[in-house]
Structures are given as structure tokens and as C-alpha cells.
């Protein structure tokens, strides 16, 4: 029983030492102990080691690169990373481009949503002439993430305004819209307005006869990340409203040019035809109303007795002329 207890205590002690050592890697990196050379148990700092830059691309791709100008051609490289909240080591795939004097190491970073920390320690091993260079860098993934360009850029034309809308980029670490700053470029001219946390922009004085080319890029704000990296510009979105309006105006003008003369010609022919009809078929004259009323009276057929004229002799005939 005492032997078993001693073995158990030894195992726990070994495990605690290993965990402490693994945790110390992140602590050492965080304290800027970034380069160590070991040969024959000698440890010292080498100032000629290259400057290494690491970035997160495409949400979960960790890419680290450095120049090999100051290093030997037969140098060997390897790299790995681990989360500071875990002990598992994740290797990176390193490739060397001799023509460009560049080494690049890449690997997928699988982030679990339940992770409270997104700090990683990246270890680089460079072997030159029997010397082993071990370089360690500490990173917060939010500080080294280069976001993708905004996606799904759409435009809506409202009278003399052009409303531009887009969706936020995918991110491994940034989930607050207020942490994102957008930059808008229209016809190679950058919009001066600050687009922090916005997903739309309204351009006034929109001219439908012009062609507009729209691009957007994004970065993190100072409040959410210590270093900011602009994303690449999005694919150009071209608003070709001017061409559609040009064809519409041309069709309307053509319709007016052909239809309006035909309408005027039809009206002119109708007027001319009415005059021609009156000449060919003149109207029959009707008696005036006075004559018609006179003919309708019965007094016209009655004989009016002659009036007696004073001074005329009796028996004398009087001729009355009715004119």
C-alpha cells in the first residue's frame, strides 16, 4: 500500500511538472522571451534571427512567414502552436521558397465556442549547423486576424439616392458588430464618413446617367484589437443604371417621333374629310321659322272684309291690294 501511494504521488508530481512546463511556454512567450539558441547545453540570445509575422486568414487559417536572407541555405524549419488553455501541440506545415527567400508555415486553427481564451503560443524551430534555434511567440488571435472582405454587396436606387448594403465578414474571434470599421470606395474615391458598426450607406445626389463602381473593406477597431489589419477590397460591384435609362429614353423618343405625327395626320384627315363631305352632300335649306309659323296659322286662308273708307261713296268698289 505505501508503494502504491508513492507511485501515485510520483505520477501526480510528474503530471503537475509537465502541465507547469506547458503553461510556462505561454508565460515565457508573453514575457517576450522569443528566441533561444542551444548547443552543448549553452543558451544565449541571437539577434540575427528573422522577424516572424503571423496572421489569421479565412477565419481559421494560421499563417506565419519570415525571410531567409540572413539564414543559411541548408537550414531546417519546423513550427507548431498550442492554445494557452490546453496542452495539445498542433504542428504547422512549413514550406520554403528559395527563389523568394521566404519560409511560410500554415495550419488550421479549430476554435471551440466554449473557449474562454483565444491566446496561442507558436513555437518555431530552426536548425543551422548543429544549432537549434527555438523561437516562441505569444498571440491573441483577435490581434492577428485579417478579416475577409464584406460579402453580398447590394444596391437599391431610391429616387436620387443610392443605398448600398452589405453583410459582415466571418471572423474567428470578433462577434460584435461595433468592433468592425468599414471603408467604402466609390469610383476609386474613398468615402470620408466613418462607417463603424454599419451595414448600409446612403449616397445622396445619385446620378442615374453615370456608372458607379463600389468596393468595401473592413478592419477591427482599436477597442477590440491592439493591431488592425485591413482586409482585401471586395469584388467590384458595378451599378449600370445609366445604360438602362439610356435605352428607355431612346425607346420613348422613338415612339413619340413615330406615333405623334400619325396622330396629327389622322386628326387632319378627319377635318379635311368633314369639309369634303359638306361639299359633296350639301344640306337642304329649311324654311325660316317665321314663314313656317305663318303657314301654320288659319288666318292666312280667311278672307278679310274690306274696310269702309270715309268719304267714299256707297256702292263704290274699293280694291285692296295686299302686298
UniProtKB/TrEMBL annotation:
<keyword id="KW-0812">Transmembrane</keyword>
<protein>
    <submittedName>
        <fullName>Interleukin-5 receptor subunit alpha</fullName>
    </submittedName>
</protein>
<keyword id="KW-0732">Signal</keyword>
<keyword id="KW-0325">Glycoprotein</keyword>
<keyword id="KW-1133">Transmembrane helix</keyword>
<dbReference type="GO" id="GO:0009897">
    <property type="term" value="C:external side of plasma membrane"/>
</dbReference>
<keyword id="KW-0472">Membrane</keyword>
<dbReference type="InterPro" id="IPR036116">
    <property type="entry name" value="FN3_sf"/>
</dbReference>
<keyword id="KW-0675">Receptor</keyword>
<feature type="signal peptide">
    <location>
        <begin position="1"/>
        <end position="20"/>
    </location>
</feature>
<dbReference type="GO" id="GO:0004896">
    <property type="term" value="F:cytokine receptor activity"/>
</dbReference>
<dbReference type="InterPro" id="IPR003961">
    <property type="entry name" value="FN3_dom"/>
</dbReference>
<dbReference type="InterPro" id="IPR013783">
    <property type="entry name" value="Ig-like_fold"/>
</dbReference>
<feature type="transmembrane region" description="Helical">
    <location>
        <begin position="250"/>
        <end position="271"/>
    </location>
</feature>
Amino acid at each position: 500500500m505505501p508503494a502504491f501511494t508513492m507511485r501515485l504521488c510520483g505520477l501526480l508530481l510528474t503530471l503537475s511538472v509537465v502541465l507547469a512546463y506547458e503553461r510556462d511556454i505561454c508565460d515565457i512567450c508573453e514575457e517576450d522571451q522569443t528566441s533561444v539558441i542551444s548547443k552543448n547545453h549553452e543558451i544565449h540570445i541571437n539577434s540575427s534571427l528573422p522577424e516572424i509575422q503571423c496572421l489569421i486568414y479565412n477565419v481559421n487559417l494560421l499563417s506565419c512567414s519570415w525571410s531567409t536572407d540572413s539564414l543559411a541555405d541548408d537550414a531546417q524549419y519546423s513550427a507548431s502552436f498550442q492554445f494557452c488553455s490546453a496542452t495539445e501541440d498542433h504542428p504547422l506545415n512549413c514550406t520554403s521558397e528559395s527563389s523568394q527567400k521566404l519560409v511560410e508555415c500554415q495550419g488550421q486553427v479549430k476554435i471551440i465556442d466554449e473557449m474562454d481564451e483565444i491566446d496561442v503560443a507558436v513555437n518555431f524551430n530552426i536548425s543551422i549547423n548543429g544549432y537549434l534555434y527555438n523561437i516562441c511567440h505569444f498571440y491573441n488571435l483577435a490581434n492577428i486576424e485579417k478579416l475577409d472582405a464584406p460579402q453580398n454587396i447590394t444596391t437599391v436606387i431610391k429616387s436620387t439616392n443610392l443605398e448600398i448594403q452589405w453583410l459582415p465578414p466571418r471572423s474567428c474571434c470578433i462577434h460584435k458588430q461595433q468592433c468592425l470599421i468599414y471603408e467604402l470606395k466609390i469610383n476609386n474615391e474613398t468615402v470620408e464618413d466613418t462607417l463603424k458598426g454599419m451595414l448600409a450607406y446612403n449616397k445622396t445626389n445619385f446620378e442615374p446617367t453615370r456608372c458607379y463602381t463600389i468596393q468595401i473593406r473592413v478592419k477591427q477597431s482599436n477597442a477590440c484589437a491592439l493591431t488592425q489589419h485591413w482586409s482585401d477590397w471586395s469584388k467590384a460591384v458595378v451599378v449600370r443604371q445609366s445604360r438602362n435609362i439610356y435605352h428607355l429614353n431612346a425607346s420613348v423618343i422613338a415612339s413619340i417621333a413615330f406615333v405623334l405625327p400619325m396622330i396629327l395626320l389622322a386628326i387632319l384627315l378627319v377635318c379635311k374629310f368633314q369639309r369634303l363631305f359638306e361639299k359633296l352632300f350639301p344640306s337642304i335649306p329649311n324654311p325660316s321659322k317665321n314663314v313656317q309659323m305663318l303657314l301654320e296659322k288659319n288666318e292666312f286662308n280667311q278672307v278679310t272684309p274690306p274696310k269702309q273708307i270715309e268719304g267714299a261713296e256707297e256702292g263704290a268698289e274699293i280694291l285692296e291690294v295686299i302686298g
